Amino acid sequence: MKAILSVSDKTNIDLFAKELSSLGYEILSTGGTLAYLQKHNIDAIDISKYTDSKELFSGRVKTLHPKIHGGILFRRDNDDDVKSASDNGIFPIDLVCVNLYPFKATTQKSDDFDEIIENIDIGGPSLIRAAAKNYKSVLVVVDCNDYNKVISNIKDKKDSIDFRKELMIKAFSHTAEYDSFIANYMNERFNNGFGESKFIVGKKYIDTKYGENPHQNGALYEFDDAWSKSFNILKGESSFNNFLDINAATKIVSSFDKNAICIIKHGNPCGFAIKENLIESYIAALKCDSLSAYGGVIAINGDLDINLAKLINETFFEVIIANTITKDALEIFSNKKRVRLFELNNIKLDKFDFRHINGGFLLQEQDEVFDSEVLDSKQMGNTKANPKEMQDLLIAYKLAALTKSNCVTYVKDCALVGIGMGLTSRVDASKIAFLKAKEMGLNLVGSSLASEAFFPFRDSVDLASEFGVKAIIEPGGSIRDDEVIEAANKHNIALYFSGKRHFLH
Fold this sequence. Notes:
By secondary structure, the protein is α/β, with parallel strands linked by helices. It has 3 domains: 2-190, Rossmann fold; 230-344, AICAR transformylase, duplication domain (Cytidine Deaminase, domain 2), CATH 3.40.140.20; 372-497, AICAR transformylase, duplication domain (Cytidine Deaminase, domain 2). It is 40% helix and 21% strand. It is built from 21 helices and 21 strands. It has a 6-stranded mixed β-sheet. A 6-stranded mixed β-sheet has the order 16-21-20-19-17-18. Strand 12 (319-325), helix 16 and strand 13 (340-344) form a beta-alpha-beta unit. Helix 4 packs parallel to helix 8. The longest helix has 30 residues, at 161-190. The chain starts with a strand and ends in an 8-residue tail after the last strand.
């Protein structure tokens, strides 16, 4: 029996090779892997000697040879293949263990295109694909985490067709992911990310109990171990819809400094505040819409301790997520069967955003919201906002940008006091925000208002004046901007144009 071992990631390859040798495998290897095995006193044959063909072009051609690919690919149950292999001195290769040149890692540490090109693996994918194609006769191993399982199954004679299929699927997924990253990188480098093809690759992180509804299957797939490295499940199982709400909530709180708290219900914020401490932030956030908050998701940009936990425990939240959750805080919720507790840290904003539509998907650059859009916005009327109002405008602006359009947000004393979202009319959004604030006993007098898109008419400003709004920020750009400015001046409302729209459909 023969096995090819040629890996860039050499984690535990020496242990794997020793086990294979003890099972009677003859090890064939190349370059750095060969030197590594020999350093660990493992007998291995240089593939160049095996093929009687030296490496060419500084190692660009090493394993591309009939004795290698023929040994992998010939069908053991096909008489013609067997005869052809025998006539040409080709012996069966029974196991291929390969992982690929670190192309992605190279792009992250270097912009030298020549160096990047040299880290595109050619022989490795060819070996993997050949072995995967002939999986009935060849074990193909691409993941060092599978070494023990492979050895165990060989020893116990359990390397069944089903097990080989499992390895085969993993192998094709491995090369597909590798090639996808190369293609995406080239398009990002030379076509601004929008080439003829775009490949979206994710690894399954977790199955959800079901999708948005019980009759739908669902799972979360992650980019680059983003969730594996950042998400810590402390209590409960997160559902498909939970993940949607977690994403919405954490995008909002991570846009602010420490002590931000956001409450999400069905993908939309129904509470937000950022105060001197988390206790104050939570109290203020809950006031915005305590009715909708019930059964929602709360995200905390900070640490959940026992004092905050006791306060939160007075209201039912389905999901509570924070940077860290102390053991004492965790104990507070131990008897709450329906409460799910998670820690999440440092999931970075993806470079691109895509939306599925029937028959395809839409791709765009990720929308980002910057403080400078507010701090450098243009004063359009006669009235100037004071520092407190500008701080509220900044919060309102970010919340509006990260909430479904059409959207308006009212912020007062660094807390959300009114919000209307996802409506077909901006005036209706304003009215609903006011009605909800009134229902919650909140006063909009002295608040700051943000709209993620321009006001097409002055009516929204006239309405804002009735509510007691003191400052407004919007992108501007309407053909009736002059009327909007006139209305702001009439009501002594500070009006600012950011020059940047943030639709979220």
